[in-house]
Amino acid sequence: MTETIEAYLSLGSNLGDRRRNLKEALRMIGETDCVSVEKISPLYETGAVGGVEQGDFYNVVARIETSLSPRELLHLAHRVEKRLDRVHGERWGPRTIDVDILLYGEASIDEKDLVVPHPEMENRAFVLAPLGDIAPLLMLPSGRTVSERLAGIEGQTVKIIGSLD
Ligand code: X6L
Ligand code: MG
Ligand code: MG
Q1: Is 95 assigned a catalytic role?
Q2: How many alpha carbons fall within 13 Å on the CB side of residue 156?
Q3: Total number of domains constituting the chain
Q4: pLDDT of 64-103, one tens digit each?
Q5: Residue 86 appears among annotated catalytic residues
Q6: pTM score, two decimals?
Q7: What are the backbone dihedrals phi and psi of residue 84, each rounded to the nearest 5 degrees, phi first?
């Protein structure tokens, strides 16, 4: 791989075998040409935010190195979601897997189906807590640190329950 970019992905699951779903998604991502998974956060159990009342999520954040374009990375995310039988029903409803691109190097992308940095990442404890574990010095798009943003969030439950391996 020449000229790789460091990117961060958020993965979440609240349907089926949540831990297995996250592991399978990361296995697929890691086995993809031009992508290497560099670091995986601790495993979190998190209260669902947004949408209908639904079961708790398992969430992780992964740092990858990739020479895929942002668009190719989005296609990979969709391929993983299809493989894990994600059904697109109600908005923000329960899902076997969700793979979101949080950051792609320093890039800012604003296309209808691809917005990076992820516009809501700084408001979600289920993203910030695991992100802070693997990138404590990372500067967020707002210019705040992860811990500054996390400290300002109320009413979102997140708890480390172990690791994916
Ligand atoms: C006010 C209004 C505050 C809306 C928050 C936050 C809406 C997150 C949607 C919000 C708001 C979302 C996951 C999840 C979803 C996940 C956990 C979403 C949309 N994905 N909850 N909810 N983990 N814990 O991966 O993220 S769907
Ligand atoms: Mg999402
Ligand atoms: Mg998504």
Answers
A1: yes
A2: 20
A3: 1
A4: 999 999 999 999 999 999 999 999 899 999 999 999 999 9
A5: yes
A6: 0.97
A7: -95, 20
> Ligand 2 centroid to 143 CA: how many Å?
22
Task: Kindly compute the dihedral angle of the four CA atoms of residues 165, 155, 141, 160, in this order, to the nearest 10 degrees.
Answer: -10
Residue with the nearest Cα to atom 22 of ligand 1?
49
The CATH number given to whatever domain includes residue 20 is: 3.30.70.560
Return the ligand number nearest the Cα of 95. Answer: 1
CA dihedral 47, 53, 57, 63 (to 10 degrees): -90
User: Has 133 been annotated as catalytic?
Assistant: no
Each residue's pLDDT tens digit, 37-75: 999 999 999 999 999 999 999 999 999 999 999 999 999
What is the residue range of 85's domain?
Answer: 5-162
Handedness of CA 118, 119, 123, 124 (dihedral sign): negative
